[in-house]
Amino acid sequence: MARLPDPLDTLTPEAKRVYDKITAKRGAVRGPFASLMHHPALAERAGDLGEFLRFGSTLPGDIREMAILIAARSMNQAYEWVAHARMAKKEGLPDDVMERVRTRGDLGVLPPRYAGAARVVQHVLAFDSIPPTLQAEVQRELGITGLMELVVLPGHYRLIAGVLFAFDTPLPEGEPAPF
């Protein structure tokens, strides 16, 4: 296993500032940020983008969390799934939508509120161009800023998944594997 030691007992004053900044929004430094804190400047920048995408974006919370779950499932990233499945429920993402994503069901049959956004995320994850009609549809629903956020979101969560996989980040204690 490629796990890293916990850096939290050896933080420099600058690293402690980054730690405090991250915990102010997230409540704790765990998961990918426990590893990223070995490089505080990188942790801060990754945290800033993630913070904006989660707390400052124009995307409705249910659509944002669905997009994150689609990204997590596409990479079989269990930690990311578990963390964001909780948030998705709080944001009102229907259980049947979450289950369809978790079981790799056909996302094309999702309710209209979710179908277009899900297809955009699938195109991004496949490194595929978004068809013009789909782009126009999602842009009408979410605006150009929402569309851009939806395109950037899977890439950010790929970055986070890479950190989680690289350092064998375990699921929170007592949490069953989702897939």
In terms of quaternary structure, what is this? single chain
Mean pLDDT: 95
The low-confidence runs, each spanning 5 or more residues with pLDDT under 50, are none
- Number of E strands: 0
Class computed from helices, strands and strand pairing: mainly alpha
Strand content: under 5%
Gyration radius from CA atoms, angstroms: 17 Å
Q: Order of helices and strands, N to C?
A: HHHHHHHH
Description:
This protein is mainly α and 179 residues long. The protein is built from 8 helices and no strands. The longest helix has 35 residues, at 132-166. The radius of gyration is 17 Å and the shape is globular. It starts with 12 loop residues before the first helix and ends in a 13-residue tail after the last helix. The model has no long low-confidence stretch (mean pLDDT 95).
What characteristics describe this protein?
mainly alpha; 179 residues
Summarize the structure.
It contains 8 helices and no strands.
